[in-house]
Amino acid sequence: MSRELPRSEFFLRVLPDYLAVLVVERGLAANTVSSYRHDLESFGRWLDATGLDATGCERAHLRRYVSALRGRGVGARSAARALATLRGLFRHLLERGVITQDPTLELETPRLMRGLPHYLSDEQVEALLAAPDVSKPLGLRDRAMLETLYATGLRVSELVGLRMPQVRLDPGYVRVMGKGSKERVVPLGSQARQWIESYLQHARAAFDRNHVEEVFLTARGTGMTRQAFWHLLKAHGRQAEVSTHLSPHVVRHSFATHLLEHGADLRAVQAMLGHADISTTEIYTHVTRERLRRLYDASHPRA
Predict the structure, then answer these.
(1) Is the per-residue pLDDT at 1 higher than 50?
(2) How far is the C-alpha of 235 from the C-alpha of 173, rounded, in Å?
(3) Catalytic residue among 92, 226, 249, 291
(4) What was the pLDDT predicted at 302?
């Protein structure tokens, strides 16, 4: 049971109005709005505890709030996300004429130590893809899912949420509804197409007792869940002896890194990953440069 919210001005008027704007005017996805709500409710409780009002907040107050988050053990990334949420809120209040100055201007974002993403080698990918026992319906399903994940770089929620009309095997692409309800088209390679087709022809009917639209089904006949896919990915990773940390996002990182290593255009990779900002995709260029450096050091006689 969720905690009852305080009946302050922030919770009665400011928060509901802003969340309505996010849904109606900006069309954000339900999960995104839920994250905004969580951060803003935390901020509202802090306002109530300190006797402040959102419309009277100054930059120093927001610095105190971020410090309070860090003091509670909130990490730099989560604190930065909370601050980004407040920037949106105060821009909204400024546009509505509720405030005359934005207190988040020139407010420093908590520093993030941005590490390079983990990714698999070509050999590790091959071992992982070959791990499922494709003589069995479940193994055929798992092989099709792994091939699709590596061929497209989909997020795990996008992979398990794929529905039959979104998959076009003849032209070879999937149509994905990503973050912020933004649709994108991602190509399917020949190997992924073949394994999906084999799964659809020889295995899916064994699970589809409820006639659902999801492409990938559990043994119970329901759509695959994120948690179930995590478990099967981990199991196949152990079988393939992939010793590195393994998650759906690591496979997504591998997709992007391998594309760039083989000459793909950065903008094309951005479009396939569904990144709104090219700077998010540019992290993979650092990965490829690091790998080139290691190859040079290991191979050049005067390195």
Answers:
(1) no
(2) 28
(3) 249
(4) 65
pLDDT value for 109: 73
Which of 127 and 82 is assigned the larger pLDDT? Answer: 127
Reading the block at residue 130, the tokens are 């070959």
- Residue range(s) defining the domain that contains residue 224: 122-299
Annotated catalytic residue, options 141, 143, 155, 253 = 155
Residues 141 and 246 in one domain: yes
What's the pTM? 0.62
Which entry of 204, 252, 253, 258 is annotated as an active-site residue?
Answer: 252
pLDDT band of 113, cuts 50, 70, 90? very low
One domain for residues 60 and 146: no
284 is catalytic: yes
Between the CA of residue 255 and those of 27, 154, 242, what are the distances in Å? 29, 9, 16
Segment among 158-172, 192-206, 253-267, 285-299 with least mean pLDDT: 285-299
Q: Are residues 71 and 152 in the same domain?
A: no
* Three-state SS sequence of 10-43: HHHHHHHHHHHHHHHCCCCCHHHHHHHHHHHHHH
Active-site option among 64, 179, 184, 226: 179
Does residue 61 lie within any of the structural domains?
Answer: yes
The reply to whether 200 and 87 lie within a common domain is no
Tell me how far apart the terminal alpha carbons of the chain are, to the nearest angstrom: 62
Query: Is 155 assigned a catalytic role?
Result: yes
Flag whether 233 is in a domain.
yes
Q: Is residue 249 among the annotated active site residues? A: yes
How many domains does the chain contain in total?
Answer: 2
Catalytic residue among 63, 91, 275, 291: 275
Is 253 among the catalytic positions? Answer: no
CB atoms < 10 A from the CB of 15, how many?
A: 21
% of the chain with per-residue pLDDT over 90: 58
